[in-house]
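Data availability (excerpt). The following record was deposited with the supplementary files.
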Amino acid sequence: MSKLKIALLQIAPCGSLEANLEKGANACREAAEKGADIALFPEMWSCGYDICDRPSKVWKKDAISAESPFVNAFGNLAEELKMAVGITFLEEYGNAPRNTLVLFDRHGERRLTYSKVHTCDFGAERSLSAGDDFYVSSLDTAAGEVQVGAMICYDREFPESARILMLKGAELILVPNACPMEINRLSQLRGRAYENMTAIATCNYPENVPDCNGNSTVFDGVAYLPELSDSRDTCLIKAGGEEGVYIAELDLDLLREYRKAEVHGNAYRRPEKYSLLTETSIKSPFIRADRRS
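Predicted structure:
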């Protein structure tokens, strides 16, 4: 069986880029010692998502290049540890930074770069540039090739994010996060995994970080098995609030066999009926006056 070990690095930032690099590297080493194939950071690890209580002109100075020594250090570490690393950072980008994840494979090669599409424009993230699209890449791991995509925090609240990733072939969606993961948000993740037959791994900051509470999770999306008379819990792991490196083991063979037989995902969709979803001229309810165009 192909068992993919995913490490959720539910750790608190240290207040500086250098200290976050050191602590992040130590967490990656711990993950590798625990046999992880992929290590995932919380959202915007380079600055600890420290953008909410400071003027944008101040925190924008924390933005770093996607080719910076900080980011490249995790590529080197991925090669050294023979483990994929999903590192997150506030990325320099034109006049407005982006909220970005780079996924390095176990050879230290960049396999995926994703910037948050659904920026939280009701708050500090209105000063960010939004990402352009959702991407899926084939990731070489010790457990074999796996198709990996990403969405970041608020992306989770739009069913279209995970749907597009599923349609592009994602078997696993990585979700860096920085907010309280309570019952409704956890239910969103469970629902996205269930309806798309896709594993979803979310890494949040621990409870000692303001406005966060841990509860990092992995849902495997496999709701039914022939030998069971009822549905099964798709949650492989739900961390508590404490700092730590949490490991979940995803059975890729089980997921792939399930996708061949079950009725969700793309099995019985009717996309010709969904044109309203991409119609921008229709006036619909719940559009806030302060929404950024």
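Summary of structural features: Residues 3-278 form a domain with the Nitrilase/N-carbamoyl-D-aminoacid amidohydrolase fold (CATH 3.60.110.10).
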